[in-house]
Amino acid sequence: MKLTILGCHSATPRTNTNPTSQVLEIKNHMFLIDCGEGTQVELRRNKIKFSRIKHVFISHLHGDHYFGLIGLVNTFSLLTRETELHIYAPKGLKELITMQMKLSESWTKYPLIFHELTSKKSELIYQDDKVEVHTIPLKHRIYTNGFLFKEKENERNLDINAVLNANINVAYYRKLKQGADVENEDGVLISNEKVTKDPKPAKSYAYCSDTVYHEAIIPIINEATVLYHESTFLNKNEALCKPTKHSTAEQAATIAKKANVETLILGHYSTRYNGYDEFKSEAETVFENVLLAKDGKSFDF
Length: 301
Ligand SMILES: [Zn+2]
Ligand SMILES: [Zn+2]
Known about the structure:
Layout: E1 2-7, E2 21-26, E3 29-35, H1 39-45, E4 53-57, H2 69-78, E5 85-90, H3 93-103, E6 112-117, E7 124-127, E8 131-137, E9 145-151, E10 157-158, H4 160-165, H5 173-177, E11 182-183, E12 189-190, H6 192-195, E13 196-197, E14 204-208, H7 218-221, E15 226-230, H8 241-244, H9 249-258, E16 263-267, H10 277-284, E17 290-292, E18 298-300
Parallel strand pairs: 3-4, 4-5, 5-6, 14-15, 15-16, 16-17
Antiparallel strand pairs: 1-2, 1-18, 2-3, 7-8, 8-9, 9-14, 10-13, 11-12
Helix pairs in contact: 9-10
């Protein structure tokens, strides 16, 4: 899994900072998560092929999370894209985008498929044989979802020497990988654990932006490999959290700790701050493994 931060700030674009957007590479997918202004430029700067993006997940309809989308949708047309583009977003985005296309008479030549979200409960919104994506209902000023990206359980690994010694027909290798016991060429039942090894543990990535401190998400993101949780403010500005429905770095760390995740990435910093080390040290008073998002930074996990 590889996460590339294209933008990790709130509110407005500035000379050196972009509003929210990131790309998650997982099991051969390139999932675009939020699409603030500047996303196209950052995709190019980070050498991410536009054609590999087939799914876009939009958390909510505040401009710092989707104002880059109409531009990207249009660029895909100019690049003569033919493959489908799926957009998962709160109800209303389809109307916004189609209105813009209608007035500029610029319909896409590729299928643009909207999946409008309205549920206030976590739901499965995408899956194939390798990954699944669930919503994480957040608590913000308008309807907002985070997203949980999960690898499906990996298959068992064959211990090839043990398999050969056990005289098992190749036709049964698939069943072995799926965990079944099989008969060998001599009709003897071979137990699975004698000829296979445990698979790599399945990984998960929980994206939570924007939200006030909200413990209801803990069971959904429990034991995630990586949690990205917004930390718009530092403790000294905590009074701003309630009216704006955002979190502090310490609150993000408290959620990380209670959900027992492995790693916390902080982001969605308010543009009032110029440095971010204080976010890290504040969060580290509660939770050990804290990383700071930075525009253009990649994380492998
Ligand atoms: Zn925001
Ligand atoms: Zn917002």
